[in-house]
Sequence to fold (194 residues):
Amino acid sequence: MENRMQTKKKTAVLAGYLAFSVLLVIFDQWSKHLAVAHLKGQADIPLIKDVFELSYLENTGMAWGLFAGGRWIFLAGTVLILALIFYALVRAPLTGRYRPLRGVLTVLAAGAAGNLIDRLLHGYVVDFFSFCLIDFPIFNVADCYVVVSGILFVLLFLFYYKDEDLAVFVPSFLNRKERKNGEKKFCDLRTCNK
Fold:
């Protein structure tokens, strides 16, 4: 009974994060729709002279046009990333300690999904924010989601989570080793091979 209630609660929590991610994707797609409608075929629109402008670009690669035309690589990579995010969201305990991680993963998933939709529908990603002050690639809202959540993800793992917090994400057959008397003990990535 208690296990069933825990499953229902986890399902409700995951549904909430999924709904938030869907809202972020909708905002990203709406912003790209506006870019196509108002920027495609038009001159760049400076917002801060010689610093920041709106500039339409159809990007078949990633930043600075790297791997242009590698659509299938991006599609496969994005599906793998989304599957890993889903796995982590399901495995994360329903304690407040993992709330920041669930939030960051939700935003990361929205960014990945937003650009995945573009690649599936058009074969390219619509970019439109441009920092002209420096040689910075043109980007979009989904890219903002990915960069901000990526930075927060790294900070969480460097300064917030400990090895024992991360053990919940490693399948049991990988994060346990047997002692001679049959007792199992936790081993992290640094000590498993000793």
Observations:
- The longest strand covers residues 52-59.
- The beta strands are 45-48, 52-59, 125-131, 176-178, 184-186.
